[in-house]
Design brief:
heterodimer, A: mainly alpha, MetI-like fold, 11 helices, 81% helix, disordered N terminus, B: mainly alpha
Chain lengths: 287, 308
């Protein structure tokens, strides 16, 4: 290959790559940035800038529909994230540790399908089943419990994928060593496995929490009369047109998420460094 | 490994497998059977009538195919399925065209900056899907800055020629706004599996190709792309399948030209109050996505085995 041609291509690739990445990130972030900027807009026209103002935030403080919706959504998100991580860890354990059991392919298919299954189908099918159960035994009423079940179903799949990825990178010798030293299976799990996958559990929890907090479709199908979760409130307002109060809620959510993710990643990086230091210290003691 | 044979462990194993299995069977599988049942039942006055009734010691099974007959006779459903598949395909293609080079250059960026880049792609994931769709409403509505920009550049004339919008100057509630919204929200789903795949590639293969006289362009098409097949398929399915049944984006950004099947199911259930019809529509949708779903599951399972 001629050196000159290679040089041209490499330069071109570097230039092209940089612009493509910058362009892609602009595409991903500019809409969100616009959304945030227009939450401070003092104008009745939602697309025209009319000066800085905090009026939409002030209105938000008295918006009981949004506030009640947020309370309900946080409750559901907390419960479904916790349930998803427990079920997801069991499912991930099953898939990683038990290579052979009857119906394994079927099981992994059922775990993965909710990741892509259109939410309209999941919401409708769960609704029809819960209605049938309710008609038969008078329970459960539609509301928090039914929404929770729906979110748990989707959250479990996401949690499984996250925990499974971590479990596969674990060194099985550590668990075998604990077993050799006489630990019961339950002790092996709580004393050896759990501390090693704790970080994955935390990120699975956060992911399923934010998925639940965001969900419109499944919540709408399983929602009962009474309290309405926040995403449905936002959705019904967005459907009617542009609404600066939605921009204000959006800004608060985005800022909260950004702070949360930033703090979490700093903590994770610190824990990682500490663990690396401990491992190298332990290896030094060995030699 | 003889520890595995102890009875206590077996009981633990049965519980660990059994609980999620039972959960999935009850809340994922059973609902589909219920949907099947509903789709062949008929609305009585206000309640859905039972398929199986017992009277005079006889069990009677009444199956009604009227829903499916309606499904095939009314053009509305057929066009809604077609529209859904069309826009899901366009979105997938756009995500691939934007996402593949993006993931590629991410994977070839300095190793020290890759975690940051990855974080930046993941972050929109964490912020609300709904709000990301809503954001485009403000950009494409009359007077929104993206709308103004596209009109100033006369891009709207080109879009009108391509039938992505009906008349120049009207960008909202068109196939264009729908496609942009779906591409925007689903792009990270394409980038992440592609990045995971491309960052694992053995770069020595490219060196070998260069030594054997291949130009970078040829090496890219004959080595990098075939090796990233699994990532392309995983990403495409992650975009395509949910897009076919998408509801929120068509409702907020779509218009009269873009009636998608997710909205039909929603309307049958909520507006027309006809769950059996909604169930029938949903069932045919499941049949449409069952094949892509099988491909996705196969690659997902393989990717999970590979990671070991």
């Amino acid at each position: 290959m001629s050196g000159r041609r290679a040089l041209f291509s490499a330069d071109f690739a570097r230039w092209f790559g940089r612009y493509w990445l910058v362009g892609g990130f602009l595409f991903l972030y500019l809409p969100m940035l616009t959304l945030i900027i227009f939450s401070f807009n003092h104008s009745r026209l939602p697309t025209q800038w009319g000066g800085f103002s905090l009026e939409w935030y002030a209105k938000l403080a008295n918006d009981t529909e949004i506030i009640n919706g947020l309370k309900l959504s946080l409750k559901i998100a907390f419960l479904s994230a916790t349930g998803s991580v427990i079920l997801g860890t069991m499912a991930a354990f099953t898939l990683v540790k038990y290579r052979r059991f009857r119906g394994r392919t079927f099981f992994s298919g059922m775990v993965n399908a909710p990741l892509v299954m259109p939410e309209v189908i999941q919401g409708l099918s769960l609704l029809l089943m819960l209605v049938a159960i309710q008609r038969a035994i008078g329970f459960p009423e539609r509301g928090l419990l039914t929404i929770w079940l729906g979110h748990l179903m989707i959250g479990m799949s996401y949690a499984t994928v996250v925990v499974q990825a971590r479990l596969q990178t674990l060194n099985p010798q550590l668990e075998e060593a604990a077993m050799d030293l006489g630990a019961r299976p339950w002790q092996v799990f709580t004393l050896v496995t759990l501390p090693m996958i704790a970080q994955a559990l935390a990120s699975a929890w956060l992911l399923t929490f934010s998925l639940s907090l965001d969900d419109v479709v499944v919540s709408a199908f399983l929602n009962g009369p009474g309290a309405t979760p926040m995403p449905i409130v936002i959705f019904s307002r967005a459907r009617l047109g542009l609404d600066p109060s939605v921009n204000a809620v959006a800004t608060l959510i985005i800022v909260a998420v950004a702070i949360f993710v930033a703090v979490a990643s700093v903590l994770v990086a610190r824990a990682e460094r500490r663990r690396a230091a401990e491992i190298s210290a332990a290896q030094r003691d060995d030699s | 490994m003889n520890l595995l044979k102890k009875p206590g462990w077996w009981r633990g194993r049965a519980a660990v497998i059994g609980v999620p299995y039972a959960w999935l069977a009850l809340f994922f599988l059973a609902p589909f059977l219920i949907v099947a049942k509903y789709s062949v039942s008929e609305m009585g006055d206000i309640v859905v009538q039972d398929v199986i009734t017992a009277a005079d010691g006889l069990v009677k099974i009444t199956l009604k195919y009227t829903n499916f007959v309606a499904l095939f006779q009314d053009n509305l459903y057929f066009f809604a399925y077609l529209t859904s598949l069309k826009y899901a395909a366009i979105t997938t293609l756009l995500c691939l065209v934007i996402g593949y080079p993006f993931a590629y250059f991410m994977a070839r960026a300095k190793p020290s900056s890759q975690p940051t880049l990855l974080m930046l792609v993941m972050l929109p994931f964490w912020t609300s899907f709904l709000l990301r769709v809503y954001a485009w409403k403000g950009l494409l509505d009359e007077g929104g800055w993206v709308a103004n920009l596209l009109e100033a550049l006369h891009v709207d004339r080109l879009l009108a020629l391509l039938h992505f919008i009906e008349v120049p100057g009207q960008l909202m509630h068109t196939p264009f706004s729908l496609t942009v919204g779906m591409t925007y929200t689903y792009l990270p789903f394409m980038i992440l599996p592609l990045y995971a795949n491309l960052s694992k590639m053995d770069l020595r293969l490219l060196e070998a190709a260069a030594d054997l006289g291949a130009t970078p362009w040829v090496a890219f098409w004959r080595i990098t792309v075939p090796l990233s097949k699994a990532g392309i398929i995983a990403g495409s399915m992650l975009v395509f399948i949910p897009c076919v049944g998408e509801y929120v984006t068509p409702e907020l950004l779509g218009g009269p030209q873009t009636l998608m099947i997710g909205r039909v199911i929603w309307d049958e259930n909520f507006s027309n109050n006809d769950p059996p019809m909604a169930a029938a529509v949903a069932e045919v949708l499941v049949l449409l996505i069952v094949f892509p779903l099988a491909i996705f599951n196969k690659y997902q399972a393989e990717a999970q085995e590979d990671r070991k």
